Structures are given as structure tokens and as C-alpha cells.
């Protein structure tokens, strides 16, 4: 068994692990400006590996909402618990999973709204900034997300059942060995999609996909937030050292953003 949850105030270098038939790499870093200010990151990455099953969630808090990190952490924690609760049989039915996930997300609004409503603002805030934040509070905290589950169904062939769901501008790239075969359709046009603590899903429905419906075999996936756009153009699987260097280089960019990265192979 292996679990990971982001510490939104600490960087996690690219780390490699082999566990439960899976080989995976992961890393987390706040934007350069956020690190300098010793502030909280907006991304939240969480995953769990056990009994030949890998469940993961990556949430990217919307910075223009009320403390996007709140929605990111809350939603990631809840989605991971949901993915872990689903049976192997249920997860094979993409349509059933999509309907269940949609209902689950709607059911989180009341609890999430209470968390936002009772969140205490820092005392040192200026009256103007406090007014701005109170206005944002009324509209809720928001986050984009991608989540999924991989279940190994045959040890010999390493065949797996995969379910993916996404809302927002998140990256999911699928590989068959060292060859990239597909990119899960969550692109720039989806940047207005997100989940809100006040309104639930916004600007469109969840996009889902499954291994049975992809029409293309794959045994590896990259999942990462838009802060790691530097690897979008890479057409081969980068070594860990290069990933770490690209992550470090991004901190000095004027457009530096939080980075979450997960590479799962089976």
C-alpha cells in the first residue's frame, strides 16, 4: 500500500516508486512567486495504491475564486475517497460511473459551502481587501479536476481497466510503451469548466473516458496541471532529471504557476 497527499506549503521533488504492480513518478511545486511569499499553493495532488488498484485525483484551485486552495483540497480528498469506495465491477461501466460521479459532486456542495462560510480571514487584512474577499466568499471557492482509477485485471499481460474523469484545463496523456497514443480531451477550451463549493459543476458537464472505449491499448499515463505546460511539447518520455530541471526552470518564469505531476505505468 502507498498513499500520497500534497503539502500545499512544501515542494515535493520528482519521486519514483514501484508498488502493487505499478511504477510511478510524482512531484509537486508551488509557483515561484508563491514560494517567495511562503504562501499556500493552489494545486492538490492525492493518490492511493493498494490491491492492484491505483486511484488518483489532481485538483487545480481557481485563484480568482475565494481561496482556490480550499476547493482543491476539499474536492481532492472527497474524490479520492469516492474512487476508493467503488467496486471493481462498478468502475468498468463508464456511463454508470459518470452518472454516479455527477451526483456525488452535487452532494458535496452543502458541506463545502459551510467550510467556506466559516473560514476565518487573516486579521491583518486591509478593509478594502477584506471587502473583496467577502465578495468572493459569496461566490464560493472553485477548482478544476482530473481523477481516475486503474485496476490491474490480468497480472501476466498487465491488462488494466481504466476510468478517467475531468472538468477543466488539465493534462492527461496516454502511452503504449514509449509511444504516445492519445491525449484525453481536456484542453484550453475547457478552462472555464470547474467545480464550485457554491454551485457544483460549472460551464459544462464532466468529461469521462475508459480503457474499453478508447479503441487504443495503453499502459502508461501522464497527468499534470497547466503549470507544467513546459512538457506539453515533449514527444518522448522524459527522464526524472529532466523533469526536475524543467520544474525548477519554471519558477523563474513570469507566468510561473503551481505544478503537479503524476506518471503511472503498469
TrEMBL record:
InterPro entries attached to this UniProt entry: PPM-type-like_dom_sf
Domain of life: Bacteria
Identification of the protein by name: PPM-type phosphatase domain-containing protein
Native species: Aneurinibacillus migulanus
Amino acid at each position: 500500500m502507498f498513499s500520497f497527499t500534497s503539502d500545499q506549503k512544501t515542494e515535493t521533488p520528482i519521486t519514483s516508486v514501484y508498488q502493487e504492480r505499478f511504477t510511478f513518478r510524482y512531484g509537486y511545486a508551488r509557483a515561484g512567486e508563491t514560494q517567495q511569499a511562503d504562501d499556500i499553493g493552489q494545486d492538490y495532488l492525492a493518490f492511493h495504491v493498494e490491491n492492484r488498484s491505483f486511484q488518483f485525483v489532481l485538483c487545480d484551485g481557481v485563484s480568482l475564486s475565494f481561496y482556490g486552495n480550499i476547493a482543491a483540497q476539499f474536492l481532492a480528498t472527497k474524490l479520492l475517497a469516492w474512487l476508493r469506495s467503488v467496486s471493481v465491477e462498478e468502475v468498468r461501466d463508464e456511463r454508470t460511473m459518470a452518472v454516479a460521479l455527477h451526483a456525488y459532486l452535487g452532494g458535496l456542495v452543502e458541506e463545502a459551502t459551510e467550510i467556506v462560510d466559516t473560514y476565518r480571514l487573516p486579521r491583518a487584512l486591509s478593509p478594502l481587501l477584506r471587502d473583496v474577499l467577502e465578495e468572493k466568499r459569496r461566490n464560493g471557492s472553485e477548482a478544476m479536476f482530473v481523477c481516475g482509477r486503474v485496476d490491474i485485471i490480468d497480472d501476466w499481460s498487465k491488462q488494466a481497466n481504466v476510468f478517467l474523469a475531468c472538468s477543466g484545463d488539465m493534462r492527461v496523456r496516454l502511452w503504449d510503451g514509449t509511444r504516445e497514443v492519445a491525449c484525453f480531451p481536456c484542453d484550453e477550451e475547457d478552462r472555464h469548466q470547474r467545480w464550485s463549493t457554491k454551485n457544483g459543476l460549472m460551464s459544462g458537464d464532466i468529461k469521462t473516458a475508459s480503457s474499453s472505449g478508447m479503441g487504443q491499448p495503453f499502459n502508461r499515463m501522464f497527468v499534470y496541471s497547466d503549470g507544467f505546460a513546459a512538457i506539453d511539447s515533449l514527444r518522448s518520455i522524459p527522464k526524472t532529471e529532466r523533469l526536475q530541471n524543467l520544474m525548477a526552470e519554471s519558477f523563474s518564469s513570469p507566468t510561473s504557476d503551481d505544478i503537479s505531476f503524476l506518471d503511472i505505468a503498469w
